[in-house]
Specification:
The chain is α/β, with parallel strands linked by helices. It is built from 16 helices and 13 strands. The chain has a single domain (about 65-365), classed as Alpha-Beta Barrel (TIM Barrel), CATH 3.20.20.
Length: about 375
């Protein structure tokens, strides 16, 4: 008899050794409750009861951790004159009562929150204030819900020496678990030597850097039109460019202890990684920075989220970089992936230990999350 997923709604086949239990999510918030939650006045005692979907592998309860979950802080956006109303409607302004209910439905125990940097072109004082507000409020939220949220610090990377101070304070004083960065900074590649102090500090602190693209505006004309190509193609393309520069410009040799996790499965690079090795033979003179190993070897020391949609795509990523380098990612609240746990479970060829690693064990280790 094959193993099963057990929920409040029946029994379904599941990969060997895997069981889901306790899926019983209540209905949507009443309008009055929604207003209370938005105002911060909805306590745990007044929330409709819900039970999270528990994931068991090999009889072991797995703490599932989503490393790719967005939010914004309205007060920080106002510093730069950005209206947060639309973001509130989209769920990017985090209302804990609503967010945790959605996490329960998805089977997510913990979200690692990050804020996409919208301040990289701001003046120093403004950027400093945005980062201060972001990090203090993220720390406060995580302190109020320590079993559900951890967070990546914001940093003003356009001022690298300031970013170093912000990162150290956020990690050592506020308890944030890493840093969230774009895939470039106001048009500058992160392999530029002026960013080396930040990478050195991230390496010294041993924290995880979550790298999330913001598109390739220089290709705006070509990506204009139907399909939202600036996002669909532009985002993973920017990640591909960023990682390639970190490899070929020698940044990862200079800071070998860096822990970098890229959104969206690392863009396109891992799917066509052997071309990066082939250039060593085909056009060796174009390699102007001496590398300590083949380009593909660096890909196997980086980390990636599993937001690549199909079991075959995830199987291919695992084959290229190893299951130990991949973590659960949803891009919440954007509805790219509404069944992230099922996505991992449906991927063929994974062992139980590899599923445990992707679902949460690797993220728990890198983010300092205890069982």
């Amino acid at each position: 008899m094959s193993p099963t997923i057990q929920t409040g709604h029946g029994i379904a086949p599941t990969p060997a050794g895997v069981i889901f239990t306790g899926c019983a999510l209540g209905g949507p918030l009443h309008p009055a409750e929604h207003a209370m939650a938005a105002a911060g006045g909805l306590s745990s005692s007044t929330q409709p009861a819900s039970r999270s979907r528990e994931v068991l592998v090999k009889g072991r309860r797995v703490k599932t951790i989503d490393v790719h979950a967005h939010c914004v802080i309205p007060e920080a956006m106002q510093v730069l004159g950005i209206n947060a109303a639309e973001h509130h409607q989209q769920g990017i302004v985090l209302v804990p009562a609503e967010r945790t209910r959605a996490m329960d439905e998805q089977g997510i125990d913990v979200e690692a929150l990050s804020i996409n940097p919208f301040w990289y072109r701001a003046e120093r004082d403004q950027a400093g204030e945005v980062v201060r507000i972001n990090n203090e409020q993220l720390a406060e939220l995580c302190g109020q819900h320590p079993d559900r949220f951890v967070a990546f610090a914001s940093v003003a990377l356009q001022f690298p020496e300031l970013a170093v101070q912000q990162l150290e304070y956020a990690v050592k004083k506020l308890g944030l678990r890493g840093a969230a960065v774009g895939a470039s900074c106001a048009g500058d590649e992160f392999s530029d030597p002026r960013f080396h102090p930040f990478w050195r500090k991230a390496e010294d602190l041993g924290i995880l850097v979550f790298l999330h693209p913001q598109g390739t505006p220089e290709l705006g004309k070509r990506l204009h039109g139907s399909g939202g190509l600036d996002n669909i193609i532009g985002n993973p393309l920017e990640t591909t460019i960023a990682l390639s520069h970190l490899i070929f410009d020698g940044t990862l040799d200079m800071f070998p202890g860096l822990k970098i996790c890229s959104a969206h499965g690392g863009g396109y690079l891992a799917s066509y990684m052997d071309r990066s090795d082939a250039v060593l033979k085909t056009f060796p003179k174009r390699i102007t920075t001496k590398l300590e190993k083949k380009p593909t070897a660096y890909l196997k020391q980086l980390y990636y989220d599993a937001l690549i949609f199909t079991p075959e795509a995830l199987r291919h990523l695992v084959a290229n970089v190893g299951a130990s380098q991949i973590m659960l990612g949803t891009d919440f609240p954007y509805p790219w992936e509404d069944k992230p746990v099922d996505h991992v479970m449906a991927t063929p060829g994974l062992s139980d230990d590899e599923r445990i690693a992707i679902l949460g064990a690797t993220a728990a280790r890198l983010l300092g999350i205890k069982d």
